[in-house]
Amino acid sequence: MFPLANLKKIAIIRRNGLGDLLCLFPTILYLKEKAKSAEITLFVDHQNSPLLSYLPSVDNIVVFPTSGNKYLHLLRAALKMRWKKYDLALSGKTSPMKLMNVFLFALGAKRRVAYCDESWHSRFINFSLPYHSVHLQNIHQAVRSLQMVAPHLSTIPSRFQPTITVPRCVKQLYQQEIVALFSKTFGSSPMILLSASTNNPCNRLDPKNYAQIVNHAAQGLFIAALVIGLSKDQMRAKAICNELIIPNAIYLPRNFDAFMVALDQCDLFFVGDGGVAHLGASLNKKVVVLYGGVNPKQWTPLGREVDTFFHPHHVEKIEKQQIVHKLRTKIYESYHDRREDMQSQDR
Fold first, then answer.
1. Is 94 within 8 Å of 130 (Cβ atoms)?
2. Last residue of a domain, one of 115, 133, 156
3. What are the pLDDT digits (tens) for 80-123?
4. What's the pLDDT at 347?
5. Which helix (H) or strand (E) covers residue 122, if one does?
6. Rounded to whole angstroms, how far apart are CA atoms 204 and 217?
């Protein structure tokens, strides 16, 4: 492995997925610590770019458009930034990918690092890491990324885990409209976040089953549910709310800041695998996340209070009573945390 302390310019590309971007940040934080004098440029898709304002800063950000020919966009960006003469360029994609390898080569970096197999495009990478799917299947994506520059690490040290704090000025813009969705009676009660959107149908409970699990977990307790989603998921959000017997409301954020404030208002997340789960963990929330067909050992959100349930085919086949028990425990913990917060504010 080459010495990191001598690096002056570093390029990293991770195009899509909020969770993917969060899994890359331990690598970025490691490089910021070990290559202190290096200038870091991060290449991301337009859909990911709003999250960067909530994460530790990098020196430069290059954003790819979401529409049009992705090969052309990446090639143009690589050629435009080639003059930088990067010492190191990393692919944040932790499996072989033609588009990433071509991009790193076009960027002209001295050291090009990516996971590679026997494909022709692997020839563009001069510091390749062997990709063995069986060996890597139980290694977390964030660890696989970090091992590109720190092969000796098999876990993510806590100081490299991404943490998010929503700025007070952003909260002031959107907090009141979210609080106003609920009556004042439940203003001091914990709030559980449910997501009408998931990135894969295998991670998605039927609306009735989704609501019934929450109803059973919250039986006899005062808790409200905020159902969040994209505009296209409004019908599913309504179907979930129609089955809930606890106070509930639907919130379809009009922009990314409103979305982040809504997430931050909640105490507990009960969601399927996707970006919301990863954001909840980075916000230091309690998270219960369901995985169907996706190995949670690779994709568990990086956080201290995350619990996962997994079925190799579909989340509907997970034992529901286990989920109910875990949610109920988390609700009690949320009550305790709320009381402690109120007591600390009174002091």
1. no
2. 156
3. 999 999 999 999 998 999 999 999 999 999 999 999 999 999 99
4. 52
5. none
6. 18
Range of 97's domain? 9-156
Give me the helices (H) in 158-233, please.
168-179, 207-217
Write out pLDDT tens, residues 229-258. Answer: 999 999 999 999 999 999 999 999 999 999
Domains held by the chain: number:
2
Assigned token pair, 120: 């022709």
What is the CATH number for 255?
Answer: 3.40.50.2000
End of a domain among 156, 191, 218?
Answer: 156
Single-letter amino acid, residue 287: V
Q: Tell me the C-alpha distance between 339 and 347, whole Å.
A: 13
Structure tokens at 49: 């770019």
Rg, C-alpha atoms of the chain: 21
In a domain, 60, yes or no: yes
Q: Specify the higher pLDDT residue, 200 or 317.
A: 317
